[in-house]
Amino acid sequence: MQNKTLNLFKRARSENWAIGQFNISNLETLQAIIRAGRNLESPLIIGTSEGESKFLGLRQAVALVGAWREETGLPLILNLDHGKSFDYIKEAADAGYDAIHFDGSKLSLEENVRIAQKVVQYCHKRKVMVEGEIGFIKGSSEVLKKIPEIKEEDLTDPEEAEKFVRETKVDSLAINIGTFHGMDVSGRNPHINLGRLEEIRKKIGDKAFLVLHGGSGTPEEDVKKAIKLGIVKININTELRLAYTKALKKALEDNPEETTPYKYLAQAVEAVQKVVEDKIKLFGSANKI
Ligand code: 13P
């Protein structure tokens, strides 16, 4: 991967702050994230899931992020989030993504290792950073009617995580320490299992950067402690989707006659920007460029 990206992750880990990954599927959300990063001088990871990138277009996402990078000079890393198939990962790497997350967490450990090795081999040749995953993270990035039950055995096993990192040489690792994708309607969200995080960090050491998924709604105190214990990247999606959708609905309700997108979308951009700025402050990544 690019030395600049690697150095950024190393710096975050040694200085105990984290880089936010903010997911997008449209132009305005990207614009909002960039505005927040620019205001607070923060590096940013822009994420697109397979679904989000299919809507936006892989090459189009690369071009958009590239244009913002050129204009702002911000460290912007474009990451494919939860890539499941090797073929799609290859497409993203070929299109110019800076990083990819291979999610083989539902596969057997052997199969997860086997495909991750293939992904690492393909991506590293092209200087693309690779994130693996051990310990399936439940839920999806929306407001959930029922929160998934997370049992002790769902959490990432430190031994398995170590074996996976050693055998695949992934750069970073998504771990299950109690979070899930999405948010509960009641606002109840999981506490992070900090003990498990400590055990994983002890086993992995500095061999891979640790990644927290399902960042939306996670209690702020837990997030701060998790960063102190070695989490270097935190993924946020649901809170952005919610802010965008709520603001857009309100703008249309307040102004039913309005038909000019850049007018009724302005409030959605502002709402997303606010969420991203709050996360940047929480993660400690402000003034780090
Ligand atoms: P949330 O939707 O819970 O923020 O999770 C996002 C995520 O982990 C993307 O990979």
Spatial sequence of strands, sheet with the most strands: 1-2-3-4-5-7-9-10
Task: Tell me the radius of gyration.
Answer: 18 Å
Large-scale geometry? globular
Relative helix content: 40-55%
How do the strands and helices of this protein lay out in sequence?
Layout: H1 3-15, E1 19-23, H2 27-40, E2 44-49, H3 50-56, H4 58-72, E3 76-83, H5 86-95, E4 99-102, H6 109-125, E5 129-134, E6 139-144, H7 158-168, E7 172-175, E8 181-184, H8 194-204, E9 209-212, H9 220-228, E10 231-236, H10 238-254, H11 261-264, H12 266-283
Parallel strand pairs: 1-2, 1-10, 2-3, 3-4, 4-5, 5-7, 6-8, 7-9, 9-10
Helix pairs in contact: 2-4, 2-12, 5-6, 6-7, 7-8, 10-12
Bound molecules: 1,3-dihydroxyacetonephosphate (13P).
Descriptive keywords:
about 290 residues; alpha/beta; TIM Barrel; eight-stranded parallel β-barrel; two-stranded parallel ribbon; 10 strands; about 50% helix; about 20% strand; binds 1,3-dihydroxyacetonephosphate
Descriptive report:
α10 runs antiparallel to α12 (266-283). The protein has a single domain, classed as TIM Barrel, CATH 3.20.20.70. It is α/β, with parallel strands linked by helices. The strands form two sheets. An eight-stranded parallel β-barrel has the order 1-2-3-4-5-7-9-10, surrounded by ten helices. 51% of the residues lie in helices and 18% in strands. The relative contact order is 0.17. The model has no long low-confidence stretch (mean pLDDT 96). It has helices spanning 3-15, 27-40, 50-56, 58-72, 86-95, 109-125, 158-168, 194-204, 220-228, 238-254, 261-264, 266-283; strands spanning 19-23, 44-49, 76-83, 99-102, 129-134, 139-144, 172-175, 181-184, 209-212, 231-236. The chain starts with a helix and ends in a 6-residue tail after the last helix. The longest helix has 18 residues, at 266-283. β3, α5 and β4 form a beta-alpha-beta unit. It has twelve helices and ten strands. The radius of gyration is 18 Å and the shape is globular. 1,3-dihydroxyacetonephosphate is lined by residues 23, 81-82, 141, 181-182, 213-216, 235-238.
